[in-house]
Amino acid sequence: MNGTYSPEVATAIDLIWKSFNKEKMQQGYAMLEKAANKGDADAFCYLGRCHMGEEYVWCGGDFDVDEDRASQLIKESVRRGSASGVLCALRNGNLTPGVMRDMPFSSVKEAFSEILDQAKGGDAFCLYMIGNAMFWGDYLIIEKGEADKYNDEEEYNEFAYPIAAEYYEKSFDAGLSCAFGNYRTIYDSGLADIDEDTYEEYFQQLADNGDPLVCSDFGKYLEDEYENREKEALIYYRRAYDLGDKRSAYNLATCYGRGYGTPQNLDKAFEYYNIAAEAGEPGAMFELGNFYFEGRGNVTRDYAKAVYWLGKSYDSYDEERRWRPAAELAILHQDGLGTIQDDDMAYRRLSEIEDIVDEIWEPLDAQVLNALGVAYAFGRGTDTDIPRGIEYFDRAIEYGSEEAARNKAMFKKSIFGRWSRR
C-alpha cells in the first residue's frame, strides 16, 4: 500500500508485457519471483497474471496456465496489500468475501483510487487497469450507487466507453498494447469519439511496436479494408510470424494459397498451415485436413490424416464455423475413408450442415448432397425417407454428380408416384 510499484516489479512488468520476447519475459518472471520472496505484494499479483492464460499474457512467454496457482497468488497479493491485486481479483472472480476481510484496504474503492493515482502519474499498466474497470463494468462495483444511474448495459457503455478509450489510448502511448482488443470493441460500437484515422494510427503504432498479435491483426485490417495493400498486409503477417506468433502462420498460408500479395504457392501454404495447426489454430487444422482430403498441390491424398486434422479442427472451432470440417467428415464417415464406416456419425455431421448445404464449396457440395441422399434414401443413420433422398440425389445430379445418378438408379417410381428400391 505504498502507491507505486517497486523498481523490480515495474521493470518486470515492462519485460513481460512490452517485450514480446521469451527470454526477456522469463527474466521478468524471475524478477517477480525474487520480489515475491521478499514480500512484495504486487509481485504476487503479476506472478498470478502470468499463469492465467493468453487473455492475460502473451503465450510466447511459455508460462504454464494454472488457474489454481494464479488464484492463490492473486489472493495472496490482496492480503498483502496490492491494489493491483484487488482490481485483478475483482476482474477474475477471486475477490471473495473472505479475501476482502483479510485485505488491508477499507474498501475496493480505496484500492481503485491508488491505481488511479498511479495511472495519473503515467504508469502504463495502471492506465490499462483503469480502462478495464470502466470497460468491463467493474466500476459499478467499485463506486457504490453508480449502477442505479443506468437502465441497461447500453446506457452504461455510453458513459464508460469514452472514459475507457481515453485511458487505453494513454496506455498505448506509454508502450502497452494489452487493451487494443477492447479498444477495437469500443471503436466498433461507435459510443466513443474515435475517428477512423486515430484508430488506424494506434493500430499501426502498436503493430510497429512489436506486438505480434496486433501485427497480425493489422495485416488482416489492411486486407479487409483496402483493395491495393496486399504486399503491406503480407509484410505484417510475416512480421507477426517472425516475432514468434506461430498461429499467424495461418495468414501467411492463406496468402500463399490464393496468391495474395505473393505468387501462389500451395507447397508454401501447406508448410505454413502445418506450423499454425501445430500451434493450435483451428482454421489451419481444417486446411490441413482439406489438403489431405482433396490431395491438393504436391500433397498426396491421405484420408486417415484428413480425419485426424478435420476432427481436431471440429473440436477446436466454435459452433458458427464447425460446419466446415463437419462437411468433409460426413463424407469420410459415411464411406469409411480413413476411419471406420459409421452411418450414425455421418448423419450427425450431415444434420449439422443440412440447412446450409448451399453454402458449401465446389466440388464438395455435390458430394454432401449425394451423402444426404444416401442417408435418407437408404436409411443410413436416420429413418428411411426415399422421396427426400431422391430430392437430394437430383440436386447432386444438377451439380454433375455421377455417383448420385447411380444411386438414384437403384430406385424406381410407381405409376402412383411412390418410390421404392428396385
Primary descriptors:
about 425 residues; single chain; Sel1_AlgK; mainly alpha; 23 helices; Tetratricopeptide repeat protein
Characterise this structure:
- The chain has 422 residues and is mostly helical.
- Among the domains are: 105 residues, no CATH class; 62 residues, no CATH class.
- Helices cover 65% and strands 1% of the residues.
- The chain is built from 23 helices and 2 strands.
- A two-stranded antiparallel ribbon has the order 1-2.
- Helix 3 packs parallel to helix 5, helix 15 runs antiparallel to helix 16 and helix 22 packs antiparallel against helix 23.
- The protein is elongated.
- The mean pLDDT is 95.
Low-confidence runs of at least 5 consecutive residues: none
Major sheet size, sense and barrel closure: 2 strands, antiparallel
Please state the CA-atom Rg, rounded to the nearest Å.
Answer: 27 Å
Helical stretch count? Answer: 23
Silhouette: elongated
One letter per element, helices H and strands E, the order comes to: HHHHHHHHHHHHHHHHHHHHHHHEE
* Widest β-sheet, arrangement of strands: 1-2
Strand tally, please? 2
Determine the strand fraction and express it as a percent band. Answer: under 5%
Mean pLDDT: 95
**Quaternary structure classification:** single chain
User: What proportion of the residues is helical, as a percent range?
Assistant: 55-70%
Helix and strand composition category: mainly alpha
Distance between the termini: 85 Å
